[in-house]
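tool_call predict_complex ligand=iron/sulfur cluster
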Amino acid sequence: MRNQPAGLYIHIPFCFSRCPYCGFYSQTDLDLIPSFVSALKQEMSMIAPFPPAFDTLYLGGGTPSLLEPDVIAEIIEASYRYFPLSAKAEITIEANPGTVTPVYLKEIIAVGINRISIGIQSFEDTTLRFLGRMHSAAEAIASIRDAREAGFENIGIDLMYGLPGQSAKDWITELKTAVSRRPEHIACYMLTFEPRTLFDEWKNKGKIKAAEDETVSLLFETTIDFLEKSGYNYYEISNFAKTGHYESRHNRKYWSHAPYIGLGPSAHSFMEPVRSWNHSSLKKYLKDVRKGRRPVAGNETLTDNALILEATYLGLRTAKGISINDINQRFGMDFGARFAPILKALSKEGVISLTPERCVLTRKGRLFCDGIAARLSG
Ligand code: SF4
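tool_result ok
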């Protein structure tokens, strides 16, 4: 897996406004876009050595769709100039409804974007308001339609569930609308209360309440049932695709420990066994790059044990599970022997399915992925 082509991630750190639940780094001074783009190109010129081949480019954020098509073209062109990016690369942009027009969508296809991931979150106006989103339900629907009409053949949408007071019925209504729009990919994320967000503060002050565990489990099961019946394959805890072809090639790299390079503020890079991350501050990022320094805030060298723990956790998150052969070869270990007692216990509890080739979470096990991974690595 480590020999597979690398991914290039570019973090575009700009949003119109900050959503109260969001833990990703971004800021709202759009006047800084030109300085950022020029620093980004300089950062690209400083990266070496890098893996021999890249087959994905992912513009995430933030709200990359705030960038004009000619700026996106400039970034894609620079990516090709500085990195051995395949001509057949999957090139994704994250976009928010309300920031994209039919003309804009056509223009970004023309400059090389071939996959769009739309941050819908909800098709209900009241929910969108609660989430502090800038767009309406009508704009959410229009963005999918416009992306299709513009020529996108690979459309992904993101939805959020586990919202305070949300029932399974409410969530099914959202899912029904989602599948009726026929995106190729649907990602469903459970609302989490990220530290230092407004939602977290409200939760701590008792202004909002996290959904009960039982409700979260019900909504999670509902998601899998509904989407699988609607022709979407579960391939990762939060991700569903119409066919394997539409699984996010870029995100699969994160789950398989493939190498990736992240550029822009807060972006992470991984080239086994080293992970590094950039400053989560545009100011510090610009300062470092202007001084000719890579804007790296920190790095860690993962020990074999840490890598095994991560590989176990990441593998379990996927529908294919852990490849026992791969993990044995990679770490010179006997997975089955090393974890024999715990594997036996987990099988007995019905949360994993174990064959000589693979260790996969069962349907029941998917609800307890984090806890199972922790037990396996303990
Ligand atoms: S959720 Fe998206 S649009 Fe909202 S603040 Fe975070 S990155 Fe920006």
